[in-house]
Amino acid sequence: MNTLYRSMLGGRSGLIGLAILAGLLLIVFPLLLEPFRLNMMGKYLSLAFVAIALVMCWGYGGIMSLGQGLFWGLGGYCMAAFLKLEAARNIASEAGTDQIKALSTVGLPDFMDWNQITELPWFWYPFKSFPLTLALMIVVPTVIAYIIGTAMFKRRVGGVYFAIITQALCWAMEILFVTRQGWTGGINGITDLRTLLGWDIRTPSAQSSIYFMTVVGILVCIVLGRWLLNSKFGRLLVAVRDMEDRVRFSGYDVANLKTTVFCIAAAMSAVGGAFFVLNVGFMSPKLVTIEPSIYMVIFCAVGGRMSLIGAVYGTLAVSYGRTFFSEEFPALWYFLMGSVFILVTMVFPDGLAGAATRGVPAAWRWLTRNFREPPPAPATAAVKEAQP
Amino acid sequence: MTAKIALALLLAASAGYSWDEIKGVMIMQGFAGLSLFSIFLLMALGLAIIFGQMKVINMAHGEFLTMGAYTTVFLSWLCESYAPGLLAWYFPVAMILAFFVAGSVGFLVEFAIIRHLYKRPLDTLLATWGLSMILQETFRQIAGARETSATMPEWLMGSLQPFEGVDIPINGIFLLGASLVLTVIVVINLYYTRSGLRVRATVMNRDMAGAVGINTRMTDRMTFALGCGIAGVAGAAFTTVGSISPSAGGLYIVDTFMVVVFGGAGSIIGTILAAFGIAQAQSVLEFFLSGVLAKVAVLLAVVFILMIRPQGLVVAKIRK
Amino acid sequence: MIYPHFALELEELTVSFDGFKAVNGVTLYVSKDELRVIIGPNGAGKTTLLDLICGRTKPTDGKITFMDKTLTRLPEQEIVRAGVVRKFQTPSIYPKLTVFENLEISHPKGRTAFGAIFFRRTSDVVDRIHEVAKEIYLADLLETEAEKLSHGQKQWLEIGMLLMADPQLLLLDEPVAGMSVREREQTAELLRRICKGRSAVVIEHDMKFVRRIADKVTVMHQGKVLAEGPMDDIEKDPRVVEVYLGH
Q1: H helices then E strands: how many in chain B?
Q2: Domain at C57, CATH number
């Protein structure tokens, strides 16, 4: 029990950090925010899954993936496919004898109908079943990550080259999804999703339930991530990042280690994509291409690339900033975001987490320098991550 | 080249085209491919210096191209408004001006950002992506979001007809010529001059180069500026075949990186070969598949070949 | 079995980089329990030879056998698992991890990804770490971050990391480079101690140090073996003198 407490929750400081985050997401936000904003937070949080994945993959393992949107998108598309088929079935049954509605092929998603597809493509069949959908949502991105990872890491393609190649692959996937309109809904994506196993996901109460599910998902991912990073595996990732050859010459299959973390990151991202679909009720290829993928990396960088909790704060801060500025001062947003990209890499490579673990104690000491015994600063633990 | 023809023939044969049709396709798509090749090469040349030699990932490279293009557009507009008589000859001036505008911005960028990040290549990627956002928005604020184009001098318009049924646009030939001349200049500069020697020495062994009296910081700065300047010239040349918008340069950035990586970072010959190969493959495939699918096929093929040859096409075998 | 007492056998080993033969037809036999030192001027191909044995570079031609197992085409980690470990010229340790963690990572338990995830710090692992740390003079520094160690201590740490796996053959590239005189003595003693029951191939320039540790010396020059034998004979060999003092 004690070891689990240490490895999964990160000891006392880790637990405090987690508790503050949980309190903020589970109590403060639902109390303060109107439903529309709360749903927006749910949307942002579904991106935080990717940021958490990138902390493991990039911050610890040193593998920068600029194509994480690919996995996030695959997870999202799997979930969307299931919801779409359910919606199509419902429309068919509602239509009943209605001549006009019944003209369309029964049980087929509307976009297929528009593209003169009369029969469900074979790879859509599994999405009729919810358990199969859940399985595929994890399995498909993981298998693709496994193929990419094995192919690249076995051949020692790494660093910048890997980043550029993942970017190209992500782009290739976007192109495929946009052009295969009849299979994927094309540029519009899969829209007009309504119910999940008969439960209308568009009602306010459903939306807030989904928000809480998303938060639980995030917290589970953080705990899981901590457990992995606090194991020998986590230390090996740092070792691979800093001194790859030494790990290899200590008898490890480096390619295998890298592929494993890449697969875990892919699976975690995919879960985020699925939560996104539940939160917003659609999926679109515009969300999975190069630019969103780079944003995902910047979420992680802003939060602090070595901090799982920081990744969540980073995602929320950047996404909220983006929404706020593009509503109020659209032109300013690009200048601001561009500057954040530059500043965070040049001045704050440890992101918000670094600022919190170093800046807050320093500020606290400065504020309390007149007292003899400064009490411990609770806020420092907020973003502090238990280092392995 | 032969491999590519074989591939095209194979595809064509399987799709049931006759030999004459295939020949027509080859010529037509061959020219289209050459024009794409010119654009890739122009973009990739600057990047081959910045990424290939200095190992800096400049995601804002496309914006330097855009900068050169806007310089040309601006100059053509000035000429048109104030000195219409000079319109025929402003273009060479625009190319030189584009070089200096993009080059000096590059100089400043190296000083302000890049030099702090030489040891963290992946971070450079993020920082320069931010830079590209800032630059794009700057273009949008100054020149507007709409596409614009430069007024072309008379001698760049029209087309040649070497034989019946074949039209070769002059601006296409000009673009190809410009990319080849620029390549030659880059090769000469890098491999046959003192300053090129300094660049290569600094890249190979920074400490040693410093020890023998090379100002490595200034060399870095000038190299980066040179790469950006070349992107500027490329942008000027680009205006002869297309219109320009704030995000135009960014559209080619992934392609360009693939070209440089595929060719083997650090090898100009490799870059040329890769630009040619990718452009030709894409344009030939475009005839059989739809344009975007051709793009996917080529991207996947490049990724696949990179798996087999992780160092790219042209690579020197050395002790690690 | 023609040479039953040899642990490491290199036969006609050749590697060429764009036509330049860095190692050219090297044949070398190292016995069990033997500490072999390779000397030679810069560019003789010493480091490349170690690269070939540990799999970092693949040979163009020739054969490498260790304990009757052919290593020639094996991937690096398989060579390590066969009992061959390598120390690099510049200390290569994990700077952000503590000495303890550096040693722990080098422990052969949990070498697969899942093995590492479910790896538990059991008492035998901890005992082994303490044992090795004592051997390499770092017992008091277990919780220090490796990047804070002195240069000599980093060299020892890397040797300790090799020992964690209880290897059969140690390949050491200039283990005393950058060490003080006192550290050199300690290292010589350390090497003599740890090489009992193992084989070792050491590259070294410091002749005094070589004389202290070597069972046998191989001299390399321009990718080839120039001479081989006990240190006393080597020093008198006119060809060796020519290579070192000539030109």
Answers
A1: 12, 2
A2: 3.40.50.300
